[in-house]
Amino acid sequence: MSLPTPEALQHIILQSLEASGSLSDSRELAYNGRLLQSAEEQGVVRAVLDSLASKEMVEYKQITTTTYSLTEEGEGITQNGSHEYRVWEVLPVKGQGEPVGIPELKKRLGDEATKVGQMRAFKNKWIAKDGSGFVRAAEAPVDETAVQMKEIKENGLVAGGEAVVKELQKRKLIQPKKYIHYSISKGPQFSTEVKQLETDLTVEMLQSGAWKDASFKQYNFAAAGQPTDGGALHPLLKVREEFRTIFFDMGFSEMPTNKFVESAFWNFDAMFVPQQHPAREMQDTFYVKDPAKALKPDTDYYERIRKIHEEGGYGSIGYRAPFSREESEKLLLRTHTTSVTTDMLYRLANQPGGFKPAKMFSIDRVFRNETADATHLAEFHQVEGLVADYDITLGHLLAFMQEFFSKTGNHKLRFKPAYNPYTEPSMEVFSYHEGLGKWIEIGNSGIFRPEMLEPMGLPKGVRVLGWGMSLERPTMIKYKIHDIRTLVGHKTDLDQVKKRAAIRLEKGDD
Q1: Contacts (Cβ under 8 Å, ≥6 apart) of 308
Q2: What integer pLDDT is reported at residue 509 of this predicted model?
Q3: At 377, is the pLDDT very low, low, confident or very high (cuts 50, 70, 90)?
Q4: In principle, which of 135, 214, 223, 418 could form an S-S bond with 130, CB 3.0–4.6 Å?
């Protein structure tokens, strides 16, 4: 099948309009004695119409027509009758033969025809139960389904409206087929001759004066421009901004997190993490070789931390283990943003005017010496929040977490006791994931220990509630990403970064 050239099709369209004034259906156009009705042919018609419309020679409107064709099952009904009619057909009239049971129906008609046919025949009241089998309940039913299938096969149309269409599609007897065609009329500049329009005003035209007699193609200000190959926000940044908005809405202020390199003192010691803790091992933490040592912390504060570790205090017996300054001064890539929290709490305790209640949060990168796999990276983001005030309790922590996590779309929560060196009590937070159909861990929480807070200089009645979670997990859930390595790192698809729309975390009920 050869397609007409654009020039030939232009001539056909213009001559048709010249003869009749308008054309209600572009499928009536003919080329070499053949109607142009296929989708491919109508695509060529559209391209030619766009060209003529840009010259204001024609105007056109797109029309979408839906017809229906039979599925394999629908085609079978035209030949053998509907399932319900076939069931009725093999049954005896009551009293004139042995009722036919399900096993026998399956032998004669097959499983599918028996299952569907029996149900619909009962619904139509064509058959009735008789003992352990079935008999006819109607004398000569009309097989309307078969009649419908034959009509649709003949003209592609479904009589009876949208409800009938939905029913037949639900039964998988028909399938829609959409056709796009056009109604065409004359434009303001209609002519049977296509005049070539100039697209550029050249120097030669200006010098010779030829521009005065030239016809120029009009600018199409509605046409889409060339897509820019600019940057795009990474999905993590989009979700990060959502979390920041939630914290700000709850009255939190943001902590500065611009220290990726931290001392072991702030990352571990000041948080009451023992110097013999497994988290400090080389296989879990990235240590810095050069420079190898950090600046010394405040002498008095360092001494109080050393004492709480070695000897105890503030109601604690400590760890009763040697405390090494050399270990404290090691530099490392921070393993959590709680080191930032520790520094901020120390500042709160020692600010001019003394301690004042505060609500703060941070979202930034942390580093762990882990093997990368589908759910773990050596670098990820931690979301952390804290509330510091007088006489607050575990009940306040639970209420804060219910409020916070509901704003992130996690409405069903469970809490499980856990252990952290720097919080007591400590709890892991689980949320029910509807998509996965199971409970998943989404965060950690607790009340900071007196061994951490009181050496800072915070008053005895002050309690600090803290909770945190990764940024990657909610991002992967929201964007349906199954491998974290395709979200962060060299395997990230930059085209997907550009195409992924901004998401909104589901808010809880206010």
Answers
A1: 272, 314, 316, 318, 451, 455
A2: 43
A3: low
A4: 135
Report the 10 Å Cβ neighbour count for 13. 22
Backbone angles phi, psi at 355, to 5 degrees: -65, 140
Q: What is the sign, positive or negative, of the torsion defined by CA atoms of 467, 472, 478, 480?
A: negative
Q: What is the DSSP string of 317-364?
A: ----S---HHHHTBEEE-S-THHHHHHHHHHHHTSTT----EEEEEEE
Helix (H) or strand (E) holding 439: strand 438-448
Neighbours of 285 (CB within 10 A): 19
Q: Residue 40: its pLDDT value, please?
A: 86
| Token pair belonging to 434 | 């509807």
Residue 27 and residue 182 in contact, taking contact as beta carbons nearer than 8 Å? no
Q: What's the pTM?
A: 0.54
C-alpha atoms less than 13 angstroms from C-alpha of 431 in its C-beta half-sphere: 20
Residue of 467, 460, 465 whose CA lies nearest to 355: 460
26 and 119 in a single domain? The answer is no
Residue 359 pLDDT > 90: yes
Q: Are residues 82 and 104 in the same domain?
A: yes
- DSSP result, 241-294: HHHHHHHHHTT-EEPP---SEEEHHHHTGGGT--TT-GGGSTTT--B--SS-BP
Query: The domain containing residue 439 runs over which residues?
Result: 236-499
Q: CATH no. for residue 37?
A: 1.10.10
Residue 127 has pLDDT above 70, yes or no: yes
Which pLDDT value is given to residue 238? 83
Taking only the tens place, the pLDDT of each residue in 129-143 is 988 889 898 888 999
Name residue 22's beta-bridge partners. 185
Domain total in the chain: 3
| C-alpha dist (Å) from residue 51 to 22, 27, 47, 383, 480 | 18, 18, 6, 56, 43
Mean pLDDT of the chain: 85
Q: Which residues contact 270 (CB under 8 A, 6 or more apart)?
A: 297, 301, 305, 342, 346, 452, 455, 456
